[in-house]
Amino acid sequence: MRSMLVVDHQADKAANAGPRPEPLSKEETPQYILKTYGYQVLYAKDEKTAELQMGSADAVIFHTPLNEVKALAKKLLKQKTAPVVWWCSAEAAASSASFCDDDVPVDGILTPSMSEHELHWALHFASKQCFERRQWLNERKQLEARLEERKWIDMAKGILCKIKNISEAEAYEVLRKQAMNERKRMVDVATSIVKVYQILQEQK
Length: 204
Fold this sequence. Notes:
Helix content is 55%, strand content 10%. By secondary structure, it is of the alpha/beta class. It folds into 2 domains: 3-114, Rossmann fold, CATH 3.40.50; 143-203, Orthogonal Bundle (Arc Repressor Mutant, subunit A). A 5-stranded parallel beta sheet has the order 2-1-3-4-5, sandwiched between helices. Strand 3, helix 3 (69-79) and strand 4 form a beta-alpha-beta unit. Helix 6 packs across helix 7. It starts with a strand and ends with a helix.
């Protein structure tokens, strides 16, 4: 990862931030430190700029209160999958105390005190975490899709058992043969049966 998109909203905009430490000096900012360590830095102070630059970024680094990360990260990750990292300066940490229990999609944390090698390894593990999170989300979507398909098939079997007075096994075989004959997926045939049956029931 070489190209970093730094999203730097002003921490003093955060609600309930409480007392804030002194603002960062130039040498403590994520963009300065990342450039010093040889990374290409894309910089965004607002959502529109962040969205425009997302396509060129290998990772997104948020120097914002935690409560601002979730909504914007969701929008940016629709464009491209990339690690989401939080830059935990004293300023960002102080303004995030109220949000430590929030469900924030962060793959890793960086701090201004990290050496070049520490920062490199933190980004490396953030990249792995991002991959694993994406894989888990894909597996979850596939499982939910299979459960949804199972629901339609079970409903269709129930309807066929009732109408034709047959067993569940026989109803399954009817669905399977119909799907083969129509060259459709079994769930599509099942969905059609359920929807037609529901329409007929409503017309009674």
